[in-house]
Design a protein that fits this description.
The structure is a single chain. The protein is of the alpha+beta class. Among the domains are: 100 residues, conserved putative lor/sdh protein from methanococcus maripaludis s2 fold (Beta Barrel), CATH 2.40.420.20; 93 residues, Elongation Factor Tu (Ef-tu), domain 3 (Beta Barrel), CATH 2.40.30.170; 64 residues, Helix Hairpins (Orthogonal Bundle). Helix content is 32%, strand content 34%. Strands 1, 19, 20, 21, 22 and 23 form a 6-stranded antiparallel β-sheet that branches. Strand 14 and strand 15 form a beta hairpin. Helix 3 packs antiparallel against helix 4. The radius of gyration is 46 Å and the shape is rod-shaped.
Length: 398
């Protein structure tokens, strides 16, 4: 009986040992699984990285450069107002009083130099026309008289003094007609076409012509209105170039020179830059604002800029106010929505995207105020190729 009891205890101990041993073997795969996951995670590429062989880099024209602080001059930023080019504006008034009998030009019309804008009649014109016709008739009469006296003198019928008197009368008549033509010229009338057409009855109308080519930007006259020299009836402006008048602070005056390039931005066209050059720098400082006026002449052949617009200008002025800044070529900076970024070379065949914050623009370079440090190697030319490769990898990953 006692022997059977020990045998039973032995069997139980062996069974427990086997059970414990089996449990230990089942746990071993669970301990190895994290090791496998760690290995896979190590092999997976870091996001935002593009791998490109040196051969492919050369084919794509990729160029890199090391970042180092540069000495730059902070550009001058100022507000400005766009104005008409005063050298290409004409206010047109009549040369004498009269009544408008025909209007030709309307507001906004494009006109050429010498083109009539309106015609008007004048009492003065009627008087000059009458004197002209009188002088013209007298010239014809005295010319015939001179011819008759010369014939009589040749036949020894009339004395020479009658010929001399006839010549004097013709000269006086010709002087009168020349005076009338000059008075017509002063009124802006060319009498030659009327002489050719022999319009001896009705006198010509006074033309109100534009001395320059441009657009009619003001019209202050109506049909039938009585006008005089004191009133400007039309304003014609050549809008192909405009003036941008800038307020420059006193401290920035030494940095300005005529001929400097200026970049202009307006609210109406936020994505477009307009460029011009400083054509004039004022000589007097405003006592209240402590600024001077500088003028920029800007091309407006496209007609986008309008007089009266407000603008912001940036002047790449050199001077003593130099500072150190990290700057990269503008071609190196890419956009992802509102985020700007560059590619930094981390190994001969590896390029990593780095988000940056930018500041001012210095010529063809742009300041980086956050995201890069001295010694980073940034991709300049060819960055768009890396952007395309990165997009391909992201799409493949999805």
């Amino acid at each position: 009986m006692r022997k059977k009891f020990f045998t039973l205890i032995l069997i139980l101990l062996v069974g427990i040992a086997v059970f414990i041993s089996g449990c230990g073997k089942k746990e071993s795969p669970k301990e190895e699984k994290p090791a496998t996951e760690k290995k896979e995670g190590h092999e997976k590429e870091e996001p935002g990285v593009v791998i490109l062989s040196e051969e492919k880099q050369k084919a794509a024209g990729i160029e890199v450069q090391k970042i180092a602080p540069e000495s730059v001059s902070a550009p001058i930023s100022a507000t400005a107002v766009i104005e008409l080019n005063a050298d290409r504006v004409s206010k047109i008034s009549p040369r004498t009083s009269g009544r408008i009998v025909r209007l030709i030009a309307s507001l906004g019309d494009r006109v050429k130099a010498g083109q009539p804008l309106a015609y008007f009649d004048s009492p003065e014109l009627g008087q000059i026309w009458a004197e002209y016709l009188k002088a013209k008739g007298r010239v014809e009469l005295t010319r015939k008289n001179l011819k008759r006296e010369e014939t009589l003198f040749e036949k020894k019928i009339s004395p020479e003094k009658d010929v001399l008197k006839a010549r004097q009368e013709l000269s006086e008549a010709e002087a009168d007609i020349s005076l009338s033509k000059e008075r017509f010229r002063l009124l802006g009338i060319d009498i030659t076409p009327f002489e050719a057409e022999r319009k001896n009855g009705d006198h010509p109308l006074l033309p109100l012509s534009s001395p320059i080519s441009g657009a009619v930007i003001e019209k202050n006259v109506s049909q039938g209105e009585v006008v005089g020299p004191e009133k400007a009836l039309f304003t014609v402006a050549d809008l192909s170039t405009l003036w941008v008048v800038i307020d420059i602070y006193e401290k920035d005056i030494p940095r300005l020179k005529t001929g400097m390039g200026v970049k202009l931005a307006v609210t109406a066209f936020p994505d477009k830059d307009f460029r011009g050059r400083i054509s004039y720098i004022g000589d007097v400082v405003d006592e209240k604002t402590r600024t001077i006026k500088a003028r920029v002449t800007v091309d407006n052949s496209g007609g986008l800029l309008k007089p009266g617009m407000f603008a912001t200008v940036t002047i790449d002025a050199k001077g003593s106010q130099e500072e150190k800044a990290i700057a990269v070529p503008q071609d190196a900076v890419l956009m992802d929505g509102e985020v700007r970024y560059v590619f930094v070379q981390t190994a001969p065949d590896r390029f990593k995207r780095k988000d940056i914050k930018v500041g001012r623009t210095f010529g063809k370079k742009i300041e980086v105020i956050e995201g890069l440090k001295e010694g980073d190697t940034v991709v300049g030319k060819g960055s768009f190729v890396l952007k395309s490769e990165l997009k391909k990898e992201e799409l493949a990953g999805e």
